[in-house]
Amino acid sequence: MKTLTMLKIIPIPAFADNYIWTLHDNQHAIVIDPGDAAPVRAYLDKHHLQLGAILVTHHHRDHTGGILELVEVYNSPVYGPRLEKIPGITHPLGEGDIVEIAALNLRLQVIDIPGHTCGHIAYLWNNSVFCGDTLFGCGCGKLFEGTHAQLHHSLQRLAALPDDTLAYCTHEYTELNLPFALACEPDNQQLKQREQDTHALREQNQTTLPFTMALEKATNPFLRCNEPAIIHNLELKLGHQLPANDELAVFTAMRKLRDLC
Ligand SMILES: [Zn+2]
Questions:
Q1: Which of 46, 75, 158, 200 qualifies as a FRET site for 95, CA 20 to 30 Å off?
Q2: CA 181–ligand 1 middle distance (angstroms)
Q3: Domain 4-175+207-220's class?
Q4: Cα-Cα-Cα-Cα dihedral sign, residues 145, 32, 89, 97
Q5: Which of 129, 139, 95, 130 minimizes the C-alpha distance to 114?
């Protein structure tokens, strides 16, 4: 009987700043969002792993580009959002579905987190969430298809996960997001500490992921839309007041400002 603690969670780097999260027990593996097959094949070969399944969060090419080649080589099932067109999907998924990977004794729960794309999903497993391009370190995904209300709601759902939840997103964006986060909330001591910690990790070419939901709720402005200091700073930048007690209005203004950076 395999125990959950035997599983390793490894980021396989791809392109400029993507991670293809890989879970394995030294025999079997699953990969999440394989935008490129080559680094996945190299990793699996090197560690003598069999690919048990491919999981996908949304349809963007840098998350799906390697699927068909991996299926050709490993004949793996492919799980992904039922609301999006993704070549190779064998198991379309949505809110409430469970993914069972028998070889790894793994059960992942699916939640819908639309906004970045219309059908974007996340996978929950124990205290981990694989959240694609919805939540990033100190930031969030861009709106390509959904509405601000959808993305705000999706982020609220992620923020409502337990504090010790580890978020595995797909891009190394934390350092990139820090200047905007600090502009929103320059006096946030935890955010300043995170800036130092992030620079220290990146100087050694180490990942800043995963991060805990507790840290994100304390430092990510997109999860802090009811903070008076953040609202005040946004209003200064916008040159006008935001409606009172309207988190969505704050979130929308923040996301639009971030798009201009
Ligand atoms: Zn994307």
A1: 75
A2: 21
A3: alpha beta
A4: negative
A5: 95
> Which of 28, 59, 120, 171 is flagged as catalytic?
171
pLDDT band at residue 32, thresholds of 50, 70 and 90?
Answer: very high
Per-residue confidence (pLDDT) for residue 25, from 0 to 100 = 96
Report the DSSP beta bridge partners of residue 63.
none
Active site annotation includes 133 = yes
* Residue 1 confidence (pLDDT) above 60: no
* Domain range annotation of the chain: 4-175+207-220
- 116 is known as an active-site residue: yes
Of the candidates 25, 33, 36, 62, the residue annotated as catalytic is 62
- Supply the pTM of this predicted model: 0.96
Q: Of 24, 28, 58, 152, which one is the catalytic site residue?
A: 58
Cβ–Cβ under 8 Å, residues 51 and 22: no
Does the annotation count 152 as an active-site position? Answer: no
Kindly give the distance from the C-alpha atom of residue 232 to the centroid of ligand 1, in angstroms, as a whole number: 31
Ligand 1 center to 122 CA (angstroms): 12
Phi, psi of 38 (to 5 degrees): -60, -50
Catalytic status, residue 58: yes
Asked if residue 77 lies in contact with residue 68, where contact means CB atoms within 8 angstroms, the answer is no
Q: What single string gives the DSSP state of each residue in 145-171?
A: SS-HHHHHHHHHHHHTS-TTPEEEESB
CB atoms within 10 A of CB 189: 9
